[in-house]
Design brief:
The complex is a heterodimer of chains A (415) and B (283). With 415 residues, chain A is an alpha/beta fold. Helix content of chain A is 50%, strand content 15%. Chain A has a 5-stranded mixed β-sheet with strand order 2-1-3-12-6, sandwiched between helices. In chain A, strands 8-9-7-10 form a 4-stranded mixed β-sheet. Chain A has a two-stranded antiparallel sheet with strand order 4-5. In chain A, helix 10 packs across helix 19. Chain A is globular and about 70 Å long. Chain B has 2 domains: 54 residues, no CATH class; 209 residues, MetI-like fold, CATH 1.10.3720.10. Classes of the chains: A alpha/beta (415), B mainly alpha (283). Chains A and B meet through helix 1, helix 3, helix 13 and helix 14 of A and helix 2 of B.
């Protein structure tokens, strides 16, 4: 395809010059398309590729970087028309359309030969579809509650472990004129984060996955239970006012300024908060509290993956690279650069209290790892769902209408 | 005389005017002031909610250099020039020819063709989105600067033709008749007589079209994707991080992106204003 070729050409020139100088031309090629346009992620990839070329001097790697957003619309195009050997994508149901369209190839042999069911165990279920493995997960990050440690200490609030303690912590904060939780739902994925956790804690991982796969009606009484828990928080004024007018980023100032106590978010929240002056003494992290003790804890931990394209030309080289990418040392180094968590259980985690806390939490999860609502559910369902959650947070009385609407969408989407 | 000059009005009116003017100016410039102020803030100010207050530190050099080192903004700006300059040349070259033909020759469908050019201006261009995208794919230019160049030339030529035709109409027709009597070929009449007289119109149109095309955002996002072809208006988002909108960098980038048309305006201010009124009155 014209457009892919053009992007590839421009971006790979630099890479090609480097490799052409370093390598004898024996003709083995490997083409990787990636969405890693952000500096840290790009650097991590480049560093890993340099390492791979050092170990395999006979393979010439072409690394095409796409703009992060443009990649999402380009991938179907290039996978069918002018396939690279390897493409980056996401774990969970988000990869299903490409699996179903036979654009990704199964790589069970790579998993078996390298004993990955052991090393990549925590993310295994999220790359398995129809009993086959479709990807190598190489990075993920945790979700959880980031809170103002100094405020909690001052008010004598202990880290809440269960629902009652959580609500009680909120009451104490409110009594001191502090909003319990900051949130901005202008871009409504943040509300989906709240839903994910409430549903995972109320009904468990298997139910949540069945729901996002479209197997459970939205009018199910168990969903109503989740929403009832949510309503408890809404009735108690747990969330920042006017949240629907702010992006998640615009809801950070209250946390920084001590006007809000907690924020349910992914680990990427730490960097801007540190920039704004919060330290490891004033900012803390805890696992979302347990609601029903009978249900094993599950977490949101979105993983990024690399895939073998079904139309790849250099399959042997690609499989070599997939195995390389799953290795503990490679993942340790890459994730140190990206400030994220390696998936390989034998990897080392960067020396950062939040990454360590996340790694420890995720290593002890026995319920399962969800990929986040908009990766687990198909795009159309995710969109309707997130809008519904946002609406619910503003107008909880409309619950029946919202659930009925989501159910209509479900019946259309998952036919 | 209407309106009465301010100097001749009563004292209270003058005072009210002197107060209202700067207030209105500041109010009107407030968004721009906000952008300029944000462009020199550190990211920490934005996370801490300090949007309008005094910046906690002045990061003029850091932010403006980050715009060029951390993102492909320079490539986007280059794309903007690659799109804008050929469009200006193409649209003006075509429209001076069409304008000449429509103004000088009397043929039966003259008025109809002229109206067709004018009618193009009345089409809300958003409705062309899908057909133009499909057309550019079939032509094999989708997602390259050529898609934008072709479209902008085609679309701008309508307005430019109206402008040129009306301008050439104001030229004394005797000039052309005199040349014809001397047996000068029609193209030479265009080249040696009409074109030199059109210079003010050409300059005014060049400035206008440059500004229109440079500031275009809609087609930039419809017809191109990514740093190899997208102009700067669409490329500003590349300054954002994966999770965080880096408003301080986006602001700095916006100011950089706004500079060429602003410079163009100040350099050719006279033509710009002339361009807005040219052809409005027929003498």
């Amino acid at each position: 395809m014209f457009k892919v070729a053009r992007i590839g050409l421009r971006l790979t020139t630099a890479m090609a010059v480097v490799t052409a100088l370093a390598l004898p031309a024996t003709g083995k090629e490997l083409v990787i398309n990636s969405d890693s346009s952000f500096p840290a992620i790009k650097a991590a990839f480049e560093q890993a590729i340099v390492g791979f070329e050092k170990e395999n001097p006979d393979i010439n790697v072409t690394f095409n970087v796409f703009d992060n957003e443009a990649y999402k619309s380009a991938i179907r195009n290039f996978l069918s028309a002018d396939a690279p050997d390897i493409a980056t994508w996401f774990a969970g149901n988000r990869m299903l359309p490409y699996v179903d369209a036979k654009l990704f190839a199964p790589i069970d042999d790579v998993w078996a030969e390298n004993n990955m069911s052991e090393t990549l165990k925590s993310a295994e279920s999220s790359v398995t579809h129809y009993g086959k493995k479709w990807a190598i997960p190489y990075t993920y990050y945790q979700w959880g509650v980031y809170y103002r440690k100094d405020i909690f200490d001052k008010l004598g609030i202990a880290v809440p472990k269960n629902w009652e303690e959580f609500k009680q912590a909120g009451e104490t904060l409110k009594a001191n004129n502090i909003v319990p939780m900051a949130i901005g739902t202008k871009f409504p994925w943040t509300a989906a984060g709240v839903f994910d956790y409430l549903n995972l804690r109320t009904n468990g991982y298997d139910f949540h996955m069945a729901l996002t796969r479209g197997e459970i009606p939205w009018t199910d009484p168990r969903i109503r239970k989740t929403m009832a828990n949510w309503k408890e928080l809404l009735d108690a004024d747990f969330f920042l006012e006017n949240h629907a007018a702010n992006s998640w980023q615009e809801a950070l100032p209250p946390l920084v300024n001590g006007k809000a106590g907690m924020y349910l978010m992914g680990n990427f929240i730490v960097e801007p908060l540190r920039e704004a002056g919060l330290t490891d003494e004033t900012l803390g992290f805890f696992q979302f509290p347990v609601i029903d003790p009978a249900i094993p804890t599950a977490e949101d931990a979105p993983a990024n993956t690399i895939h073998l394209a079904a139309n790849a030309t250099n399959v042997a080289e690609a499989k070599k690279f997939l195995a390389y990418f799953a290795r503990a040392d490679v993942q340790s180094a890459m994730n140190e650069t990206m400030s994220q968590l390696p998936v390989n259980s034998k990897s080392t985690v960067a020396d950062d209290p939040f990454l360590r806390a996340g790694f420890e939490m995720l290593s002890n999860v026995n319920g399962g790892l969800a990929q986040f609502f908009d990766r687990d559910a198909p795009a159309e369902m995710a969109k309707a769902g997130m809008e519904g959650f946002q609406e619910f947070m503003v107008k909880p009385d409309r619950l029946d209408a919202i659930l009925a609407r989501l159910e209509t969408v479900r019946q259309r989407v998952y036919q | 005389m209407f309106p009465t000059p301010v100097q001749q009005t009563s004292r209270p009116t003058r005072i009210a005017y002197q107060i209202a003017l700067p207030v209105a100016l500041v109010l009107w410039l407030l968004p721009l002031i906000g952008v300029a102020l944000t462009s020199i803030r550190p990211a920490a100010d934005i996370t801490a909610g300090n949007y309008w207050g005094w910046p906690s530190s002045f990061n003029l050099i850091e932010n403006y250099s980050a715009v060029f080192t951390n993102s492909p903004l320079a490539a986007y700006i280059l794309n903007s020039f690659k799109v804008t300059i050929p469009t200006v040349i193409g649209a003006i070259a075509l429209s001076s020819l069409t304008g000449f033909a429509l103004a000088i020759y009397k043929f039966r469908s003259n008025l109809l063709i002229f109206f067709l050019f004018v009618a193009g201006n009345f089409i809300p261009f958003q409705i062309l989105m899908v057909p133009v995208r499909d057309l550019s794919i079939q032509m094999g230019v989708y997602n390259s600067v050529w898609a934008l160049i072709f479209f902008h030339i085609a679309f701008q030529t309508g307005f430019c033709t109206l402008f040129m035709r009306n301008f050439i109409r104001t030229l004394p027709f005797e000039l052309i008749e005199a040349a014809r009597i001397e047996d000068v070929s029609e193209f030479k009449i265009f080249w040696h007589i009409v074109l030199p007289l059109m210079r003010p119109a050409l300059a005014a149109l060049a400035v206008l079209v440059f500004t229109f095309v440079w500031n275009d955002y809609f087609w930039a996002t419809v017809l191109t994707q990514g740093a190899h072809a997208q102009p700067v208006t669409a490329g500003l988002h590349a300054l954002n991080g994966e999770w965080i909108a880096a408003w301080h960098l986006v602001s700095a980038g916006s100011i950089v992106a706004a500079l060429p048309p602003v410079l163009m305006f100040f350099l050719m201010q006279k033509h710009f204003i002339a361009g807005l009124t040219l052809g409005a009155v027929k003498s």
